[in-house]
Amino acid sequence: MTGDSTRAVRAGLPEAEAYHPTLPGPVFAAHYHLPGDASGPYTYGRESNPTWTLLEEAISELESPGAPARTSVFASGMAAISAVLFSQVRTGDVVVLPNDCYQLMPAVRERLESYGVEVRTAPTAGDAQLDVLDGARLLWIETPSNPGLDVCDIRRLAEAAHAQGTLVAVDNTLATPLGQRPLDLGADFSVASGTKALTGHGDILLGYVTTRDQALTDSVRQWRKTVGAIPGPMEAWLAHRSLATLALRVERQAVGALAVAEALRDRPEVTGLRHPGLPTDPAHAGAVAQMRPGRFGCVVSFVLPDKAHAERFLAELTLVDDATSFGGVRSTAERRGRWGGDAVPDGFIRFSVGAEDPDDLVADVLRALDGAARE
User: Fold this and answer.
1) How many CB atoms sit inside 10 A of residue 186's CB?
2) H helical segments located in the chain
């Protein structure tokens, strides 16, 4: 088996053909020549596209290098999440969600409940979802969690879920398939927002679902076809192009994130510091057990004394954009409470480390903290 960097560079490329590009350009097509019956690999643009196919093959190689898998790409991460939940769950079913997951998931919970689905929640930390798993149709895991960066044991949860016939989906957005492989750990679905670290340039909305089960793939793709939650061919092509640098970005960002976290550790105004790569972090042991060495993600979270202090800190930064999302080559940070969907303090900062020189980034963070403290 090849290494991660080699796989990321070569994943999903077609066989070499003389005088053709190594990665064919995007195919723009609403319909295709379709003689005879309505069957074939490409029939209509809402169902399939050659540019999607290459990207889907590439992501499958990254998420499941040791076993055949099938990926379905979507218009966004939320489209991918919705496809899994709403294709698998029916009225009267039980779904278990983490209560500290991505801030739009409460809206998903409301929609599920409006359809007569029972939703139970528990924290990510301590594998607490085990306590509310009984009788569930689907268990949704997010590890490391966003934005709190807690970690749970995927294998333990998956084994308990499968013992009672429960499906398991893991949001792998923060870890990326080079940091963690949920399917190898027992999950049925690996789901992610490709908007973030997978594509890494802050210019694409994309999502995907990977599974090793053909029936699950078929149901997810039927949902995609029905609701039309499809990516554009240009977005799919740009995403595939970006995969070639994934290993470089993931490794550089992980080094930078750890450097920032270590620099923040001794600041008296900083509390609640979290990064799974810190040996002192509560999630470190769990992260080491199931994530790839040295690839603990690009996100650092911490709390400043109050909203005003946090806003001053963000305004003082010169190498970091005040923007949402994470995983891009340019560092971003935000006061997460401004969205209202996360149970975090007013001074909570989610910091996404980019590809800048770690020393420059640390210097900018410390200078910004000093400036914020002087106000």
Assistant:
1) 17
2) 4-10, 50-63, 77-88, 105-114, 154-163, 214-227, 233-243, 246-264, 284-290, 307-316, 358-374
Quick one: which of 306, 118, 325 has its CA closest to 109?
118
Same domain, yes or no, for 207 and 265? no
For residues 195 and 297, state if they share a domain.
no
When divided into structural domains, the chain yields a total of 2
Q: What is the pLDDT of residues 13-50, one digit of tens each?
A: 999 999 999 999 999 999 999 888 878 899 999 999 99
- pLDDT: is 50 or 342 the higher one? 50
- With a CB cutoff of 8 Å and minimum separation 6, the contacts of 165 are none
Average pLDDT (114-135) is 98
Q: What is the three-class DSSP state of 130?
A: helix
- Report in angstroms the alpha-carbon separations of 299 from 23, 88, 158, 254, 296: 31, 31, 25, 8, 9
Which letter, b or e, does each residue of 246-263 get, where b requires 16 or more Cβ atoms within 10 Å of its Cβ?
bbebbbbbbbbbbbbbbb
For residue 341, what pLDDT is reported?
Answer: 72
Q: What is the CATH number of the domain that holds 110?
A: 3.40.640.10
Residues 62/7, Cβ–Cβ less than 8 Å: yes
- pTM exceeds 0.85: yes
* Mean pLDDT, residues 177-199: 98
Do 260 and 179 share a structural domain? Answer: no
In this structure, the answer to whether residues 128 and 234 fall within a common structural domain is: yes
Q: Which residue range is the domain that position 310 belongs to?
A: 246-374
Q: Are residues 164 and 297 in the same domain?
A: no
Tell me: do 229 and 284 sit in the same domain: no
